[in-house]
Amino acid sequence: MKDPAEYYMRDRRLHPPAYVPGYKTSVARSPRQALISLENTLSEITGPRFGHSDIEPRDNDLLTNYAAAGESAIGERIILHGRILDQDAKPVRNTLVEVWQANAGGRYRHKKDNYLASMDPNFGGCGRTLTDDDGHYFFRTVKPGAYPWPNQVNSWRPAHIHLSIFGSAFAQRLITQCYFEGDPLIPLCPIVQTIPDPAAIDRLVARLDVNQTIPFDAIAYRFDIVLRGRRSTLFENRLEGN
Questions:
Q1: Which residues contact 28 (CB under 8 A, 6 or more apart)?
Q2: 110 a catalytic residue
Q3: Which interval of the chain is the signal sequence (predicted)?
Q4: Tell me, what's the pLDDT at 239?
Q5: What is the torsional sign of CA 44, 47, 51, 54?
Q6: Given 10, 162, 173, 222, which residue is catalytic?
Q7: CB-CB contact of 128 with 80 (8 Å)
Q8: DSSP letter for each residue of 168-179
Q9: DSSP characters for 118-140?
Q10: Ramachandran quadrant class, 140 (left: phi over 0; alpha: psi -120 to 50; beta: rest)
Q11: Model confidence pLDDT, tens digit, residues 115-170
């Protein structure tokens, strides 16, 4: 039997094109010239690095990490968890995972977010954690609300959480977002519609995980992230998924 290949060929048909007229922002963002490959510098490859000393005890608890003492964020309490895996389904250990999201009303804690939904004074919308030896990560948070955006007359973004995964150095960073099972806005979203393969869209959906739900506390969703290979999660910043 031959040894498995070190890398799996990428199916480029899975990835959205850079220019999609129906996704208005892509018109200005998409490149008009051939891309230029820039080599990383030694400092970008070797550091800075992240470790357990960079993580505070409540960093992965968005319910309380911004709240006043004894308070909690408002909204549907959920657990978002999963594993970070490589192309051979092996765990990616001790890697930094960061999340950011809108609050339960669909509003970000950002000075330029002028959506009329209320601002939750006890919700910052950001968190971070390190994967364990099994590649597992875990966040407590609220389920974000949908919100309108000026793409077309009546465009709404589905509920979603942004995730950032760091490698062994600062320049090794991948960004994606997860949606939630059963959300009727997913197939209507112009951003989601840029992805040509339904199976690739499906890999961006967090699944209800009843076994990890905490009774009378929080509903759990599982979202595994694969960094490379045929089952790679789609990433926003690099198409190769590594």
A1: none
A2: no
A3: none
A4: 46
A5: negative
A6: 162
A7: no
A8: SSTT-EEEEEEE
A9: PP-TT---EEEEE--TT-EEEEE
A10: beta
A11: 999 999 999 999 999 999 999 999 999 999 999 999 988 999 999 999 999 887 76
Q: Is 108 one of the catalytic residues?
A: yes
Task: Please identify which of the residues 15, 23, 81, 108 carries the catalytic annotation.
Answer: 108
- How does DSSP classify residue 5? P
The token pair that represents 60 in the structure block:
């992965």
Q: Say what the pTM is.
A: 0.89
Q: Amino acid identity of 237? A: N
pLDDT beyond 90 at 233? no
Q: Quick one: which H or E segment has residue 51?
A: none
**The token pair that represents 22 in the structure block:** 């129906």
Average pLDDT, the chain: 89
147 included as an active-site residue: yes
Does 73 have pLDDT greater than 60? yes
223 close to 202: Cβ distance less than 8 angstroms? no
For residue 35, pLDDT over 90 is answered with no
CB-CB contact of 100 with 113 (8 Å):
no
* 207 labelled catalytic: no
- The answer to whether the beta carbons of residues 50 and 36 sit under 8 Å apart is no
Q: DSSP state, 96?
A: E
Query: Checking phi first, is residue 94 left (phi over 0); if not, alpha (psi -120 to 50) or beta?
Result: left
What is the C-alpha separation between 103 and 159, in angstroms, rounded? 10
Measured in whole angstroms, the distance separating CA 190 from the mean position of its chain's CA atoms is: 18
The angle subtended at Cα 204 by Cα 199 and Cα 209, nearest 5°, is 105
**Omega into 48 within 30° of 0, i.e. cis?**
yes
pLDDT-based confidence at 1, cuts 50/70/90? Answer: very low
